[in-house]
Amino acid sequence: MARFIDELKRTHYCGLLREGDIDREVVLFGWVHARRDHGGCIFIDLRDREGLAQVMFDPQIAAQAFAVGDQARSEWVLGVRGKVRDRGAMRNPKMPTGTVEIVALEAVVFNKAETPVFPIEDDIDTNEEKRLEHRYLDLRRPRLQHNVMTRSRIYHHTRNHFADHGFVEVETPIFVKYTPGGARNFLVPARLNPGMFYALAESPQLFKQLLMVAGFDRYIQIVKCFRDEDLRGDRQPEFTQIDVEMSFVNQDDIFGIIEKLVIRLWKEIHGVDLTQRYPAVVGDDGVTRHFPRMKFDESMRRFGNDKPDMRFGLEHVDLTEQLIAHAGGGVPMLTPIAEKFASGAYRRDLPEEIFKGLRVPAEQAGGLSRAELDKLEGFVKQMGAKGLARAKVGPSGEWLQSPFAKTATPDFVKAVNEALGAKEGDLLLFQFGPETAVHTVMANLRLHLGKKLGLIPEVGAKSKSHETGDWNFLWVVEPPLFERGDDGKSWAAAHHPFTRPHDGSLEDLEKDPGKVLCYRYDLVLNGVELGGGSVRLHDPEVQKRVFAVLGIDDATAQEKFGFLLNGLKHGAPPHGGIALGLDRLCMLLTESESLRDVIAFPKTGKGSDLMTGAPNTVLPEQLAELKVRSLVEG
RNA sequence: GGGGUGGUAGUUAAGUCGGUUAUAACGCCGGCCUGUCACGCCGGAGGCCGCGGGUUCGAGUCCCGUCCACCCCGCCA
Q: In Å, what is the separation between the CA of A121 and the C1' of B15?
């Protein structure tokens, strides 16, 4: 074996051999991808991270090499010295290296391998469970190799981009002080301080603000974050953010640097020039903008969430005004809501209950059978909806097959039809009740219908979205600063309490907290939240007023966030920042269906690592050393 | 925390109304084959039917519980 590696160094990656290498003597190292034995001669497709190359073993040419090829099996690790030759008429147009093959002159078995649990190729239908158990095999598959290497290039371009713009990369602690609010924290027992715990940082939020106070001016970090919440296909307990903070900037400045990064990444990774779709627009204020912006309020009204997928229609229409104007329109289910508005119990500008409709145009609605409509009702019920009122629009605009049809007044029907733009054959779907519930149901219903009706391009390797340029970016801006607390009466910070209120909203802080907007923003791509951030509150007076609304007194604020507040008192520059979800960015750039496909060693929906077996129980002695007792029976 | 789907050979699946020896494809092993590239031909091995209880003369199949994975809601920036 000493000859290979010590004397014979690799000269080429298998997957990169081309016609230009013909007649060269090469040394290749790789895995046996496939072996075809013809008795006299043997073909082996040798695989490395760059791809496959066909190696031909001929006993007439090299008996020693042939013996290796004869013995070799799937996934054995080989070294081959050989000569590249033209395959002539025998070329394989399906392979990038298909015009050439390597005639083996000398070969070595570095290692044998057990029969692989599943084939090392794309488009396998093996359970994800099996794939995660043997992740080292899964990662050998070309698609995951590509994803992991693409991710590496994303790190590289991201760091270069920020370095080019004068950003300083700083590491912040992972073991941090527990701060209340937001996501649940993972806790780490502090052995040197019995009974005490560190929290794993859910983000470097407070530290990056303090780096601004420290004067670093522009901060970047590609950083792991930890949140102990329930998981999804697009959520992991540990994930990576591109974390950014800048001093002496406004919202436009932050958008500018992020838009440039995104444009650069799409150019470098996909070769797509996003500026064709999103050319620079210089506003009256002299600021250059690329991506469109939408106010939070408009997004909720039209799409029911703050991350609209604008690649298709099926927008929502708020019909609460029509409901009020027609006193419930004769529909018993709707009348109580109208009465609440009439009596003044509900405000029109901040309604507690609303009535929304969604129109499925006739050409798409025709494809939905009665049974499928009933299934839709099941779909919304699993999200807590009481039902899914619907109506088919008749020739004269009348409602058919509808629970509202019997009693709805003609004027109300007409008003609703007009608001929705309803035409004959259209299907109308309605939802009414508490605002947040209606929005959740309608937003999910819209996405569900979009997929079902084929209005959203398929995600995955077969997707052509990077070719057709269906990359739909959007900034969602100006959300409310506060939302109702769990009790429905108090106020809680919608983002975090250090977000700067909108200039025009300051007078509402005490009068009408629900109306206060703020400098917070999310970057959305094709309905996926890529990241978000805010301009921070650096005025101690306004900060005090915000805490007052939240019911946090000075002592409590000091106890919870003392270190940040102290920092802000010592000369804090105006600052703001953003964090982009790197995993999601990779997912979209590699057009993967799951976050797990862009993370080398991901965890399952219960947060376990099927390969290593984490988390696991520990010995009583280990707990004792940490002064921790488990409540679970061993 | 709630709902849905699934777990049978190494892998992916079939398995009817509860009834003889649990099927198939791919993979694997052996033999043959010098131009294959989804190589081909002949032969063969391979099973705790997720786990634990129950019903029954008899359970892969029915019932109860439990574990695991995936998807959705809640939760989560």
A: 29
